[in-house]
Every structure is written in C-alpha cells, then in structure tokens.
Amino acid sequence: YTAYSGKKLITVLGKKIVAVGRNYVKHAEELKNPVPELPLIFLKPTSSIITEGKKSVIEIPDKVEVHHEVELGVVIGKAGRDISEDRAMNHVAGYVVALDLTGRNLQSDAKAKGLPWTVSKGFDTFCPISKYINAEKIDPHNVTLWCKVDGQMRQQGSTSHMIFRIPRLISYISGIMKLEQGDLILTGTPEGVGPLLPGQTIEAGLSLSNSEKSLIEMKYQAVQKPGGMWRTTPY
Amino acid sequence: YTAYSGKKLITVLGKKIVAVGRNYVKHAEELKNPVPELPLIFLKPTSSIITEGKKSVIEIPDKVEVHHEVELGVVIGKAGRDISEDRAMNHVAGYVVALDLTGRNLQSDAKAKGLPWTVSKGFDTFCPISKYINAEKIDPHNVTLWCKVDGQMRQQGSTSHMIFRIPRLISYISGIMKLEQGDLILTGTPEGVGPLLPGQTIEAGLSLSNSEKSLIEMKYQAVQKPGGMWRTTPY
Ligand SMILES: [Mg+2]
Ligand SMILES: [Mg+2]
Ligand SMILES: [Mg+2]
C-alpha cells in the first residue's frame, strides 16, 4: 500500500472524496464567508479524479467559471468510524496535492438558492491529483501548497494555517460517515483562488517549509469541454 | 451481473450514489419547495448503504430529525458519459427500493445558510436498500412505491409521477459526471415524507401498478445511534 503512485493510486482510491470548505481564515474572508464553527464538509465524486498523463486534461464546461483551489489531500489507509482525534493519524496512509476545481458561478447560485453544491464541484476532471506521498515523508501541518496558472503564482500558503487540523477533520467526518481505505479528504484551500480558462496551464505542488524546491509537483492543461450533454437550459 | 442480490449487491455497487431531489410535484409542494427546471442532484456516500440482515439497523443520530424518503434506485450496468436520452436505458442493469434517509433539521439549516446538504444526507445507515430487481422485470415508470412506519402507511405513490424520468436523469447526470458500473441513482421521493424515530420499524417496497402484492419489500429497525463522535457543538 505504501509503494504505489500515479496511475496506481487511482485503483486504490476508495469510494468517496470528502472535501472541507473554508478551512483557512484568509480564504473564507476572500469569498466573504464566515469562518465556520465546525468543519464544513461536502462530497466530490471519485469520477472527477484525474492523474497526470498524456491524455489527462482539465475540461472547462460551457458557461462554467472554474476556479482553482489547491489543497492537501489525505489518503485514508485504515478504515474506521468514530475515530478519536488522538488515534486519527494512524488512519492516514499518505498525502496528495489536489485541485478542488469549483464552478464558482454555479456554486454561488446554489448557495443563494439553498441547493446542493454537487454540480459545481462534481464535473469530470474537477479533481486533478498528484503522485502519492507516504505519510512519514512530511509534517502535513507544516508544508507549503502552491498553485501557478500560466507560470504566474496564484496561491501559496502554509498548511500551518488550517483552522481544523487533520485529526479533527478525521474525527469529525468519521463520526458522521465511516472512512474506508483509499478515501480521500481534501483539507481546504489557502487564499488566492481564481479563474482557470481553457488554454491555460495549471501547475500545483507542495514544498517543505524550509525548502525552495517542491517535494511534489503536477501540471495540467485546461481545455474547453468538448460537446457534451451538460445542460444549462430547462427541458 | 444479473444474478446477485442482497449482500452481494454491496460488492458491485460503484463509487457513487447520485440522488435526485424534488422529482415529484406533490413532494416539492409538501416541503414548500419550487418545482425545479432542471434535475436537482446531490451525492450520498456509498458508506451510507445498508442491506437487510441481522445486524442491519438504521441509526438515528442524536439531535437529528430523520425523515424517510422512499425512492426507486437505478443501478447502472454500463459506464458512460454524455449518454443520450434514447440510449440511456441500455445503461440500466436493474433497480432497488431505497430509503433516502435525511436529517431534515440539518438539511433545513444547511439550505438557510447556503451550505452543502452532505451531513444531512450522509450518515452511516442513511441509505437502506432492498434486494435487486433485474431491469426486465419492471416498467420503472409504472410501479408503486410505498413506505410504512410501525405498520402505518406513510408514503404510497406511483413512479409515473416523476417530473424527470430515468432517461433524462441519466442523460443529465452523465453530462456532468460519468456514470460507472454499480453506481446508484436515487430518483426522488413521492409525497408523505415524515419522521422516523428510534424504536420504530420501517418497511418499504415496490408493487406493480396492477397488483396489491409487493414485488419486493424490506424491513429495518431504527435505533438510537450509539455513542459516537458526532458533534453538534463548536470545538
Ligand atoms: Mg453536496
Ligand atoms: Mg476546496
Ligand atoms: Mg430524496
């Protein structure tokens, strides 16, 4: 379980992606959202995951304003429910860098109407992930996440600024829904989210706090989603 | 793939449950919701599925007002994306009766705050399902769904009243997120939703429109969720 990476990771990824919203104060503020008192969670479908490879592109659907959100992803190695905070890190197999791509206009509309965030978060290719990092390789609360679009730095923030740290997230989530081996938790994005357009290149990575060099990097091309049945008009 | 049932179904259920809200006019009205112009979709985690068996109980978490919603579940047999309406039924392997259990107070609170519905829909045991029905056994748009609590009929409605029928749902959903073998689509609930309390027994089933007798039935006991880490207060 500790040896896989890239393509292989897909096959061991479990049945769900639990994503955490507003887990960095400055990101909550930039979208004019209140800072939550409890973790704010939502689901992304695992069908939205892509890994690097020749054919891997990010598809931007028609009329969707896609925003990048770079996040630390936690891969669950051991199943559990009602996991206590002090035992939570035993359930972590490792980490990935992930982009929680978000149709911001769809999400804003859903929020205004009290509707689920599912469509805005769930399109195919909306969860690009990096190669896998073994748990013992990093202190997950002391790395820098970064994201560039067309070579320009857009996001750069330390995971030390998470509001709810990984043990709390695991404890909270597993008190609601059991975690299974291969499940992925996206731990929220630092500030600096912004648009990703067809034709642009996005890079994201993770570096140790004492280093200029990235421990892991990934790069994806964004294209217009071809054809497709995605409907924006009523039947 | 056509022979499995009960426990076996779990192992072939795919990576997601896509649920449809407000797909029956009278149910939209009973919760004072507008009738949607496009299908309203959200995700439930597959970890919420339970099948009948000695140890299978529905757990009612502390401070959560759980409502029953009986629904026709569509099991996807063939993967696809951007599936056209006229080819959609080729992707259906069969059906289950499902309860889309919902923490109504949590959902109302989420709706008022523009937050995801995930917690209200995602607790462990919140998706009890029946044995599997092969696709050719029923006309899915002409069966009666029913649900009883402690022997009293609570819901009884024909799937002929769906606003968006199965081909449209499959086409719409697969234009956003690809469908995979074993994925489950919950097609919405007819009117009559109401509370399910610890200690109560819930039964649900499906009958052909010309028959008094159920083609399939299921029965679950509701209990108070034991202990658990489910938090309702801030850290
Ligand atoms: Mg949701
Ligand atoms: Mg995010
Ligand atoms: Mg429902």
What does this structure look like?
Two copies of one chain form a homodimer. Chain A is of the alpha+beta class and 235 residues long. Chain A has one domain: Fumarylacetoacetate hydrolase, domain 2 (Alpha-Beta Complex), CATH 3.90.850. The first copy, chain A, is 15% helix and 33% strand. In chain A, the strands form four sheets. The first copy, chain A, has a six-stranded mixed sheet. The termini of chain A are far apart. The model of chain A has no long low-confidence stretch (mean pLDDT 92). Chains A and B meet through strand 2, helix 3, helix 4 and helix 5 of A and strand 2, helix 3, helix 4 and helix 5 of B. The complex binds magnesium ion (3 copies). One magnesium ion (MG) sits at the interface of chains A and B.
Explain the layout of strands and helices:
The structure is a homodimer of 235-residue chains.
Chain A: H1 7-12, E1 17-21, H2 25-30, E2 40-44, E3 49-50, E4 57-60, E5 66-68, E6 70-76, E7 92-99, E8 102-103, H3 104-113, H4 118-122, E9 127-128, E10 133-134, E11 143-149, E12 152-158, H5 166-174, E13 184-186, E14 194-195, E15 201-208, E16 214-224
Parallel strand pairs in A: 1-13, 3-9, 4-16
Antiparallel strand pairs in A: 1-2, 5-8, 5-14, 6-7, 6-13, 7-10, 11-12, 11-15, 15-16
The complex binds magnesium ion (3 copies).
One magnesium ion sits between chains A (42-43, 116-118) and B (42-43, 116-118).
Content-based structural category of chain A: alpha+beta
Radius of gyration of chain A: 17 Å
| N→C terminal distance of chain A | 46 Å
Number of helices of chain A: 5
Q: What is the global morphology of chain A?
A: globular
Low-pLDDT stretches of chain A? none
Order of helices and strands of chain A: HEHEEEEEEEHHEEEEHEEEE
CATH class call of chain A = Alpha Beta
What amount of the residues of chain A lies in strands?
A: 25-35%
Share in helix of chain A: 10-25%
Domains of chain A, number: 1
Kindly state the number of beta strands of chain A.
Answer: 16
